[in-house]
Amino acid sequence: MLSDVEIAQSATLAHIDDIASSLGLADREFAPYGRDKAKLELTVLQERAHQPDGKLVLVTAINPTPAGEGKTTVNVGLSMALNKIGKSAISTLREPSLGPVFGMKGGAAGGGYSQVLPMEDINLHFTGDLSAIAGANNLLAAMIDNSIHHGNPLRINPKKITHRRTIDMNDRVLREIVVGLGTPGNGALRQDGVDIVPASEIMAILCLATDLDDLKRRFSNMIVAYTMDNEPVTAGDLGAVGAMALLMKDAIKPNLVQTIENTPAIIHGGPFANIAHGCNSILATRMGLKLADYTITEAGFGADLGAEKFFDIVCPIGGFKPDAVVVVATVRALRYNGQSSAEETIDHSLAPLEAGLVNLERHLENMAKYGVPCVVAINKFQTDRDDEIELIKTRCAALGVEVAESDGFARGGDGVTQLAEKVVELCERDSDFAPIYDSSATIKEKINIIAREIYRADGVDFSAAAESEIKRLARMGFTDLPVCIAKTQYSFSDDPTALGAPTDFRITVREVRLNSGSGFVVALTRSIITMPGLPKKPAALAMDVFENGTVVGLS
Q1: Half-sphere exposure in the Cβ direction for 253 (13 Å, CA)
Q2: Least-confidence region, from 226-235, 297-306, 335-344, 504-513
Q3: Sign of torsion, CA 17 21 26 29?
Q4: Is the per-residue pLDDT at 425 higher than 80?
């Protein structure tokens, strides 16, 4: 059986000029990066402002497990299948982070015969967007410390700097650091920390900005520190905005690539859904809606994280009204959720699958609360049995939810046409989409609504520090912002070991952070961290490149 990278390397790519031409793009509307990648100019939207939008489909999933769910594989397969049945479709995806690529999760370009290509480039440095984000972020951090070093004209309190440095790699030793050691010329001695790039506010701003002016406005509004009198200091106060925007002049432009079957795909931005908002850029999605009949987008991790944030944060900011949602599930992941513990040997009877279906059912009940028509995609594996598939279909039918098998990994677009036909049907129905909370609710009310309605917690416990920060944000006038909850992706609860559909639990919010530039409040639960670490055996151990350019170990 061929590996993902071997399948990718055997594919025949169309020239990126031909992919752009298939979308009706003029030469002036894209800038090639070699023969198989291109940057899309923002004029693509300006010149099509009066054109009607296509249909918007969100791909989400059950809670992730070591067995894998395959959201991106389904997303890519669905876009290819829609083209096979006579519709024009674009897949819009996030850019992979080097942290997971070299760590445990792997890449994010799909799998098997449902991949976006060139997968080696996409999973590595791609067009340099994440490097530009890190550069803008760290320039701002340097300018904060430089202002303090040169007389501190803004009277910044070194103990109240909220902006952290960033790097796109899992490096646990950088979570808490001390800077300014040595001579006075090395700057003020203070405690600091480093976040992974997908968790940085610059990443969130890129993904929520609607044009270059909006990017600059959001940069200017970033509160990065507080003065000795507890007054906010912004990136605008530091005079950093112009230089930050300059570093991002190409990164703001979405990236055009193609699937293994030469279907257009737009990849842009990459916030994690467990510690950030987990969706590709608004610009990429808007371009998809103008260039194709169907835009297939994706939200990270389970629907309790990515889909909730797409519906409650991204859609109101972007002005999106989703037409359909696809919830991805696999037999083996549902079986995993039905075990009494993660270490238990899998029982080959139907009992673990039947027990694990409660996870899928809860996600489906949650999606119904947003008023968007829904279909379950059973992402197939060779080990799936007919009786297992039928059990999933029976339980979904009891909830009145459509089901389709998806075999894009093994068969490409041909294996996803059943799902494509159901998605087309759903998109013709009325969508009564509405966020789950009103923007006028308080920060605590929003957190409680998400915890009770989506996680099914009995309530929320706030630390003293979180309570204090929420009160301070209210005094500053930030109550109307949406909430981005940072929580483990493995469970509805904030306990990663609580599989299935846990009940009788409470959520603990230990810290609250203001992202005034991106325009949301981050609530960090329990022990969630913004800088992951590498596992005992990172994926990097199996990777290499040979003299002829052949890559191995990348997936």
Answers
A1: 21
A2: 335-344
A3: negative
A4: yes
Minimal CA–CA distance to 130: which of 175, 169, 162, 176?
169
Structure tokens at 487: 């929580």
Measured CA to CA in angstroms, residue 480 lies from 194, 465, 474, 505, 545 at distances of 28, 20, 9, 27, 50
Q: What confidence category does residue 69 fall into, taking pLDDT thresholds of 50, 70 and 90?
A: confident
CB 218 within 8 A of CB 518: yes
Helix (H) or strand (E) holding 402: strand 402-406
In angstroms, the Cα distances linking 553 to 6, 36, 170, 271 are: 10, 22, 18, 24
Separation of alpha carbons 65 and 41, rounded Å = 38
pLDDT value for 344: 54
Instruction: Indicate the SS3 state at residue 382.
Output: coil
Round to whole Å and give the CA distance between 500 and 302.
12
Mean pLDDT of 379-400: 94
Instruction: Report DSSP letters for 156-182, one per residue.
Output: EEEEEE---EEESS--GGGSSEEE--S
> Alpha-carbon distance 455 to 490, whole Å?
12
User: Can the peptide bond before residue 118 be classed as cis, meaning omega within 30 degrees of 0?
Assistant: yes
The closest of 104, 99, 142, 154 to 124, measured between CA atoms, is 99
- Quote the pTM value: 0.95
pLDDT per position as a tens digit, 521-540:
999 999 899 999 999 999 89
Q: Which two three-digit tokens encode residue 46?
A: 């300006």
Structure tokens of 327? Answer: 């919830």
Q: What percent of the chain has pLDDT over 90?
A: 89
Residue 327 contacts residue 377 (beta carbons within 8 Å): yes
φ/ψ of residue 239, rounded to 5: 70, 25
CB 73 within 8 A of CB 340: no
